Amino acid sequence: MTESAKALVETWYGTGNTALLAEDIVWTVLSTFPEGGRYVGRKAVEEQFFPRLTAHFSEYVTHPHSFTAEGNLVAVTGIYRVRTKEGRPGDIAFAHFWTVRDGQISALQQVADTAAIQELLAGGEQAA
């Protein structure tokens, strides 16, 4: 399962195809991240989380750097490359922990540098 789970998550990052998400996915984002919280179901991720999150930015791109898989679990580190509506750019570190079940992504647990993104959104400059 390790290679197929890893490949599925890599495909997610490459395509953003929500059909890869289980209908009952549990999508958990730190509460201190913009639009953070727990979203249950593919429809909630598609119709609530992503539209609300991206409304904060003129640019929001996820760049994964490393993938580690064990069984049906995949850990990914990388950066969110963002630009606020006011034009301030930032690179925000993240770690994503994915669970794969029956050939679909069934859970996400997100961890990110929420202090950096909150400061950027508040109008501050991101620390180098």
Integer count of domains: 1
Counted by DSSP, the helix tally is 3
Distance between the termini: 39 Å
Can you tell me the CATH class?
Answer: Alpha Beta
Q: What amount of the residues lies in strands?
A: over 45%
- Please, what is the average pLDDT? 94
Number of E-type strands: 6
Indicate the CATH topology. Answer: Nuclear Transport Factor 2, Chain: A
User: Approximately how much helix is present in the residues?
Assistant: 25-40%
Q: What spatial order of strands do you see in the largest sheet?
A: 2-1-6-5-4-3
The residue ranges in which pLDDT falls below 50 over 5 or more consecutive positions are none
Secondary-structure arrangement, i.e. CATH architecture: Roll
Instruction: State Rg.
Output: 15 Å
Description:
The protein has a 6-stranded mixed beta sheet. The protein has one domain: Nuclear Transport Factor 2, Chain: A (Roll). The model has no long low-confidence stretch (mean pLDDT 94). With 128 residues, the chain is of the alpha+beta class. It is built from 3 helices and 6 strands; from the N terminus they run αββαββββα. Strand 4 and strand 5 form a beta hairpin.
What secondary-structure arrangement, pairings included, does this model have?
Elements: H1 2-15, E1 21-29, E2 37-40, H2 42-54, E3 57-70, E4 73-84, E5 89-101, E6 104-112, H3 114-122
Parallel strand pairs: 1-6
Antiparallel strand pairs: 1-2, 3-4, 4-5, 5-6
